[in-house]
Amino acid sequence: MVDRIALRGLRIFGHHGVHPKERAQGQLFIVDVVLGVDTRPAAKTDELTETVDYSRLATDVADAVGRDPVDLLETVAQRVADLCLDQPLVAEVKVTIHKPEAPVGVELDDVAVTIHRSRT
């Protein structure tokens, strides 16, 4: 069993989507990241180097979501998962990309894609 570190509700402006208007105007994306990390070493030593620096990770996730527009939320989610798994202490990650302003033709609260990735 692994411990969890979660960043929820990161609000990032990006230009992802299949419609030209989405690419031109951009919109808000909300990102949730849940990391599987063994936090026992950090708890024992009280050293940031023994865990994930979630302040830095939040900035890195924001940069990853805000750059290089793509068509699909699945692609953005994989980009974020790969970034998280680049952290040596992260064993697994769950990423949810929310697109509350998705132009789907009917009123809704949210569209979201969630992926789970691990080192194995």
Word description of this protein:
The structure is a single chain. The protein is an alpha+beta fold. The protein has helices at 20-25, 40-45, 54-66, 73-85; strands spanning 3-14, 27-37, 90-98, 112-118. It has a single domain, classed as GTP cyclohydrolase I, C-terminal domain/NADPH-dependent 7-cyano-7-deazaguanine reductase, N-terminal domain (GTP Cyclohydrolase I, domain 2, 2-Layer Sandwich). It contains four helices and four strands. It has a four-stranded antiparallel beta sheet with strand order 1-2-3-4. α3 packs antiparallel against α4 (73-85). The relative contact order is 0.23.
How is this structure best summarized?
The chain has 120 residues and is an alpha+beta fold.
Give the name of the CATH superfamily: GTP cyclohydrolase I, C-terminal domain/NADPH-dependent 7-cyano-7-deazaguanine reductase, N-terminal domain
Query: Which spans of ≥5 residues are poorly predicted at pLDDT below 50?
Result: none
Overall mean pLDDT stands at 96
The CATH architecture is: 2-Layer Sandwich
Number of strands: 4
Assign the structural class, choosing from mainly alpha, mainly beta, alpha/beta, alpha+beta, or little secondary structure. alpha+beta
Name the helix and strand elements from N-terminus to C-terminus, one letter apiece: EHEHHHEE
List the helices and strands and how they pair.
Blueprint: E1 3-14, H1 20-25, E2 27-37, H2 40-45, H3 54-66, H4 73-85, E3 90-98, E4 112-118
Antiparallel strand pairs: 1-2, 2-3, 3-4
Helix pairs in contact: 3-4
